[in-house]
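RECORD TYPE: inverse folding
INPUT: structure tokens
STRUCTURE:
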């Protein structure tokens, strides 16, 4: 995904454009910088929670239908990657 920014009189805006081989994620159109930061924060918190659950209760990971490998892959992603 390529993220572009531009500034207008109304402030800074962000536009995310998926690459040729990527599917449209949650950022497939114009977004404000605030909503982009909110998306990144949600990803950070989600991945932190997955890591905690994986460590504290591995059986809970299985209960939600994920494998250990899937959790490791998700936790390893940078916050800007969907």
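DESIGNED SEQUENCE:
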């Amino acid at each position: 995904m390529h993220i572009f920014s531009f500034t207008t009189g109304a402030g800074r805006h962000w536009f995310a454009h998926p690459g040729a081989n990527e599917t449209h994620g949650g950022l497939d159109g114009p977004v404000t910088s605030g909503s982009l930061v909110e998306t990144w924060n949600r990803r950070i918190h989600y991945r932190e929670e997955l890591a905690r659950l994986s460590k504290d209760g591995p059986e809970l990971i299985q209960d939600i239908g994920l494998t250990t490998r899937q959790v490791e892959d998700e936790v390893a992603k940078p916050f800007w990657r969907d």
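NOTES: The two ends are 9 Å apart (CA to CA).
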